[in-house]
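Note to self: the last two entries modelled the partners one at a time, which told us nothing about the interface. This time every component goes in together.
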Amino acid sequence: MKKFFGYAIAALMSCLLIVACGQTNPTTNNTPNSPSNSQNSIPIGIALAQTSNVALLGQEEVTGAKIAETYFNKQGGINGTPIRLIFQDTAGDEQGAINAFNTLISQDKVVGIVGPTLSQQAFSADPIAERAGVPVIAPSNTAKGIPQIGKYISRVSAPVAVVAPNAIDAALKINPQIKKVAVFYAQNDAFSKSETGTFQETVKQKGLELATVQTFQTTDTDFQSQVTNAINIKPDLIIISGLSADGGNLVKQLRELGYKGLIIGGNGLNTSNILPVCKALCDGIIIAQAYSPELKNEVNQAFRQIYTEQNKKEPPQFTAQTFTGVQVFVEALRTLDKTTKLSTLALPQLRTQLNDTILAGKYVTPIGEISFTPEGEIVQKQFFVAQIKMDADGNSGKFTFIQ
Ligand code: 1QQ
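The predicted structure of the combined assembly is written out below.
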């Protein structure tokens, strides 16, 4: 009797997950990773960089997704049906993201995807989801133009245009004498190009002198010639748009070659995983934040408590944003299920209606109260700035909020 009931639920839930309900027999069609393997749960795809140098950023995102899965399933998931996150590693490049998206969409039959890690990957992978009609919520794609990829693409990662200028304001508060600015950016990365555009415009708008623009690749390890070029013009502020390994090395070499002024790191340096790269020389880096652990609402307090218990430190922005991406899916699925039982919808209809529900909603999340423009751009209220403070031993440190 119990077994029969289990299969009945399984068959019912397969209507939700498989395009043609009648074709699936859960007792025989039980391939690994297929939704029929675990019928009474709702699969959400997580396409993040779990390997490669981009994993320095992606790891923090995976943690946020896992905390969200446990947290929301404890609350009863989607009105009684648990969610099941399906992780596909994108690694650090476009092809990895394309493969992960294809697998999640066609094989894992997810209702939607949280990912990928980089904007550079999103510009290649998101069009696949758009064509397939699968909602994507970007947890960390901040380049200009992400929501404009298509109507199924939204983001919980506020764009560089609204986040990055806060770091320059903070630097000017610390040192009002700043006049000359040197800017560095990784020219092979879409996010870095977008972010440096914002930084360079802001520098000019503030009446500062954009004295030099130096370029590098995210795969570079030696920045001697660019660092020398910059130091020669005696800048009062250096601003870096790159990713974590290259960014950390660049900071290290700037300090080793004698630069003493303030350094702003962009979003690609926004992880304590850069600390082992620049060690004591990371001290003082200023980084704008789209999250503060101090944000006062119930879900952030719960998220912060779970994270700090597990990790013995405050949750970082990428973890909070990815938790938020999963939360938006969960809350939109709950809302949709209340008006149209999810189990009555075929997968393509479910994906489309889920996307509409996501865009129409308002969410109280660890990153504050958010909503979306009709295009899928996040509407977020508060931004912050942190500065890295290294401990005396130079091995550990933390992000201290200064704004
Ligand atoms: C982007 C970013 C990266 C730094 C996220 C990890 O903001 O690629 O858009």
